[in-house]
């Protein structure tokens, strides 16, 4: 007698076993269709296993040692960088990051602004903090 796994169990297993903590919707398209995947992801959000940080962007959670609330495993910048990499957008240093890396300034960049090589309309954030994108042209 074989035990059939539910779609929710398959997605949960994939999330737990993955080396990434950030997932886009297309990571699960091989399991089922879009509507069923979204339904299973909503159940996992209710169980506080994952958080939705953008349209079609989900991240594994952990409990904050300071506030005891559910927070993403990674910081917002790392989440956005992973999503941009998965969607094929090139990430380049912003002019402020370049100046800091070259030693021209001692002001540390905030990390909330990410330099990209083309237009990005994806809004990624959590708890009121969102990533901004700056289109950087290379000379």
Tell me about this structure.
The protein has two domains: 74 residues, Winged helix-like DNA-binding domain superfamily/Winged helix DNA-binding domain (Arc Repressor Mutant, subunit A); 65 residues, no CATH class. Strands 1, 2, 3 and 4 form a four-stranded antiparallel β-sheet that branches. A three-stranded mixed β-sheet has the order 5-6-9. By secondary structure, the chain is an alpha+beta fold. 31% of the residues lie in helices and 23% in strands. A hairpin with a 6-residue loop joins strand 3 and strand 4. It starts with 6 loop residues before the first helix and ends with a strand. The model has no long low-confidence stretch (mean pLDDT 90). It is built from four helices and nine strands; from the N terminus they run H-E-H-E-E-E-H-E-H-E-E-E-E. Helix 1 packs across helix 2. This is S-adenosylhomocysteine hydrolase. It comes from Desulfotignum phosphitoxidans DSM 13687. InterPro entries: DUF6088. It holds the Pfam family DUF6088.
Outline the secondary-structure elements.
Elements lengths: L6 H11 L4 E3 L9 H13 L3 E5 L2 E7 L6 E3 L3 H12 L3 E2 L2 H7 L11 E4 L8 E2 L2 E2 L1 E4 L4
Parallel strand pairs: 6-9
Antiparallel strand pairs: 1-3, 2-3, 3-4, 5-6, 7-8
Helix pairs in contact: 1-2
